[in-house]
Design goal:
alpha/beta; Isopropylmalate Dehydrogenase; Alpha-Beta Plaits; six-stranded antiparallel sheet; elongated; binds nicotinamide-adenine-dinucleotide; Isocitrate_DH_TT1725_C_sf; metal-binding
Amino acid sequence: MTQDLVPITVATGDGIGPSIMQSTLHILEAAGARIAPEYIDIGEKVYLSGQTNGIDSAAWESLRRTKVFLKAPITTPQGGGYKSLNVSMRKALGLYANVRPCIAYAPFVNTKHPDMNLVIIRENEEDLYAGIEHRQTEEVYQCLKLITRPGCERIVRYAFEYARQQGRKRVTCMIKDNIMKFTDGLFHKVFKEIGADYPDIEQDSMIIDIGAARIADTPEAFDVVVMPNLYGDIVSDIAAQIAGSVGMAGSANIGSQCAMFEAIHGSAPDLAGQNIANPSGLIHGAIQMLIHIGQGDIAQKIHNAWLCTLEDGIHTADVYKEGISKTKVGTDEFADAVIARLGRLPQQLPAVNYEGSNPLNLPHPIRKAPANKTLVGIDIFLQWQEGDPSQLGNKLYSLGRSNVELQVITNRGVKVWPQGLPETFCTDHWRCRFVAPNNNLDFAEVLALQTRLHDAGFDVVKTENLYTFDGEPGYAAVHG
Ligand code: NAD
């Protein structure tokens, strides 16, 4: 009955998108998915019509109404001016959690890691993806890495709740907090805080570089892995590829109100129009969507039929291997093979069971009471060409006053005054830290200092206030 159908927004995408979407919808229909798709145009056509973000207002309207989006990959045209539609959608719709299961299907799909079965939970909105970039001087460009406490709390809690719901045993946090003590340090701290609410789940942390190396080498040692946006982006592609094929993995982008489901791969223009792409990534996105809308029964039926298809050696070209596979099929025929197996259970690969699976219902992060915030200094960034740090130090020192004194100058984070090393390479970008000796700086002093700098001919390109929060410094110390 029409009223039982769940409206979903569907974009057929570019390149192989229309073909894999048609196959996926064909399977959903045959399996009895109770959905009412409504179609929107996004991607290349919209970009080239002059819409630089690749989406128009009618599409937004549908997305905000249905709150469920099944999306085929799109092509971002080459060249400047086009914004990433994926990044815009994740941020505009608040899709904070990107869930990417990466599973091996040995012995039916060739992989060096037959026991691999891990899920990457990637923070989806923050980090270096804020798109806040500036050129500050002739030589120096900057990208802001933003990590927030509510953002960390949401993604970390999501990872633990996901692990508990899916019967997984361990959550590993990957960060680089030996270097980024404030941003990645916060992610790690929140992981430990929230982890205390989940004593039933094992938990550990790794620095991202060795963590990524271990995932590439022994992925079977991992279960659920949670990480900030950029690391998750890179590591989840590696994990999907070593599981068998980048064409097999699906992804869910989950927010508190909306959710988007897709394949992890792109529009593969090299395969477009040939009926040879693997539709499995999008099928897996659709399976996650069905679970999300409370149709775990249909998700389970499709997933088990898909496993049977793999077991029967019916493979698309990307995973086809002589000696392992039996029949090489195209996109449409693969979908037909899945449909023919609806209702069957796999014999060797473990069958899935999604009965009673529901979307995770997470509490909103509770805002902490504000800390006692005190201005204690300021980092002033200058463009300055001359090059001798002691000359700069002496000039700036003379512009200080008893209540705001020059403490240190760094270049690319390395101390160059006082007592820098002549070997240190310097650019035209100088961070000059002024502090209040009594640890309490009146902002009027900051303005007066900036005026003195300006009057003395200095080019101030940026300032960053130094605060303490309940007495704890809210800024990194200078080393060297
Ligand atoms: P891609 O993922 O499209 O292709 C990478 C390689 O994997 C290619 O060799 C391709 O043939 C193969 N491949 C991908 N999907 C496959 C499938 N289903 N079956 C078999 N083989 C498959 O990455 P790319 O070539 O870097 O990007 C192509 C376009 O896709 C670009 O315009 C990019 O911006 C876009 N893109 C879109 C998304 C998205 O919409 N979510 C994600 C990534 C890239």
